[in-house]
Amino acid sequence: GDLFCSAEQVSLTVSLSPCLRQSDCALTVVENSEEGEGGAVGSEESQEEVTEVVQPSEQWKTLSPGQAVPAGSHVRLNLQTGQREVRLGEEQLKYWTEEHRCVGRGHLIHDVVCPLFISSSFRPMEELKKDMAQLDLLVETDVQIMRRLLEQFNNSSSTTEQRLKVLLELEYLVHQVDNAQSLCSLGGLPLVLQGLNSSDVRLQENSAFVLGSALSSNPAVQVQAVEGGALQMLLTALATAQPLRVKKKVLFAVAALLRHFPHAQLHFLSKGGFQVLTELFRADAGGVLRARIVTMLYDMISEKSGLDLVSDESHQERVRQYHQVPVEAELLEKGWCGLAPQLLQSTEHDHREKVGGALRALLAMAPTCWHVYRSDTSLLGSLRSLQEQYHDMVQSEMIIGEESSYYADILELVQALQVRMK
Ligand SMILES: *[C@@H]1O[C@H](CO)[C@@H](O)[C@H](O)[C@H]1NC(C)=O
Ligand SMILES: *[C@@H]1O[C@H](CO)[C@@H](O)[C@H](O)[C@H]1NC(C)=O
Ligand SMILES: *[C@@H]1O[C@H](CO)[C@@H](O)[C@H](O)[C@H]1NC(C)=O
């Protein structure tokens, strides 16, 4: 009765057999033509030959009977539809339906891909569940992978190379919101923060990268990071990190920590964050960091000044919190009204792409900075030459479509700034 699938349903049975070499391993899918419950005909399983090997892509693709996929693919079983779905796998078969992703099982087969012989057949639900439970033991969930990675990172007998590899794997995983939160609940945050203070710059760089990715658009992680002392660690790293590429990653993590988080912004300012940014800006003659720093300032200013645009029940609280962040006073005090316009003087090749961002930031800062701008002769000169240059571009009939609207946008920003400075 209830234990059996109805004739309309296709259920899946998964059986496992171990393989020793990776090359032996392939997922074979076979259709079972057996009739349903109480079926009169052919109670023996008949397995069809594999007729086709499907190359998985980045998108989930439904597998048809008789189709097989290469070892290392991600395969999931959808128990509701009975469909097997496949996509490219960076590791191996670790994605299954949510019901089969459970936390806390300790058996790992991260390094062995086993062949899974999946056949569509009509099986008692209990039997099906038993097979699935067996699979759970063999399929490593993301949480299990992260636990294993963190243990390896934390193990004093691990080498630097192993730790670097662990960080890169973590960085890949924490792009998923729930994985980033698992990083916290598994106690990984303090380990990664300590990595920022490592004497090995590669560990610093990769730790900052993991942190930045975990923090991006993830308020729960942002809160826990601040509670775990991330601001101070990041500020220290920002002030002391040496190679440029480490500074870049640390700045990425700082920006991700501060974004839409006035509480963190307030503490960043009160711990001298703008001073550190000022020193970075001045020292960054090559200009690689400059645009990123000014973008960060722009984000903070525009979050605060854009508050009126969104009105919901937490609006009042947001206004109150942003009100406490003294961005404007800090901009003035640390000399940003004079520094930021230097971005327009850049002679870099990618200057053109950065001009728009620089102009938008200057415009956002204008209410605070206009009296400084007005006496900045080199800013006036830069704007005048941009205006001539872009005016000509817009007039030119050689430029059409997107290009043309890009030039028109820049011209509009230049003119808006000139108006503010009159
Ligand atoms: C650390 O790694 C070594 C070598 O892989 C292993 O033998 C040891 O059990 C690990 N220690 C801990 C505390 O996990
Ligand atoms: C790291 O190791 C220490 C001691 O060896 C242990 O107390 C701590 O819980 C470990 N942390 C993680 C996240 O595994
Ligand atoms: C950073 O490392 C130094 C030197 O190894 C150590 O003295 C200091 O306590 C560390 N700081 C933090 C916050 O872990």
Describe the protein's architecture and organization.
With 422 residues, the chain is of the alpha/beta class. The chain has a domain at 137-241: Leucine-rich Repeat Variant, CATH 1.25.10.10. The chain is 54% helix and 9% strand. It has helices at residues 125-138, 142-154, 160-173, 177-185, 188-196, 201-215, 219-227, 230-240, 244-258, 262-270, 273-283, 290-305, 315-323, 327-333, 336-339, 351-374, 377-395, 401-421, and strands at 11-16, 26-31, 52-53, 61-63, 67-70, 74-78, 83-87, 116-121. The chain has a 5-stranded mixed sheet with strand order 1-8-2-5-3. It has a 3-stranded antiparallel sheet with strand order 4-7-6, with no helix packed on it. A hairpin with a 4-residue loop joins β6 and β7. α2 (142-154) packs antiparallel against α3 (160-173), α5 crosses α6 and α16 runs parallel beside α18 (401-421). The N and C termini lie far apart (85 Å). Residues 1-48 and 91-120 have low confidence and may be disordered. Bound molecules: 2-acetamido-2-deoxy-beta-D-glucopyranose (3 copies). The site of one 2-acetamido-2-deoxy-beta-D-glucopyranose has 2 residues, from loops. Residues 151, 155, 157 line the site of one 2-acetamido-2-deoxy-beta-D-glucopyranose.
